[in-house]
Amino acid sequence: MAMFPKPKTYTEEEIERLIWFISENNNAENVSYIGQTNFYVKFQAVRDSQEVLFNFDKIDGLVIEETE
């Protein structure tokens, strides 16, 4: 049986830094934290009057963007 490391749970301070990072680097406004999964920290924001979802990949440290 394969053993996988337990995913990191981000603290409130780390989430605040991610909110700042997403706001500054993605031209996003009203960034809010949605929640965490094993692999992502999820945020939603507004950019150019459109709702955008951001997923911060816990493994690679990449911000993945989804538009609706």
Describe, in short, the structure shown.
This protein is 21% helix and 43% strand.
Explain what this protein looks like in three dimensions.
The chain is an alpha+beta fold. It is built from one helix and four strands; from the N terminus they run H-E-E-E-E. It has one helix at about 10-25, and strands at about 30-35, 40-45, 50-55, 65. Strands 1-2-3-4 form a four-stranded antiparallel beta sheet, covered by helices on one side. Strand 3 (about 50-55) and strand 4 (about 65) form a beta hairpin. The longest helix is centred in the first third of the chain and has 14 residues, at about 10-25. It is elongated.
List the helices and strands and how they pair.
Elements: H1 12-25, E1 29-36, E2 40-47, E3 50-57, E4 63-67
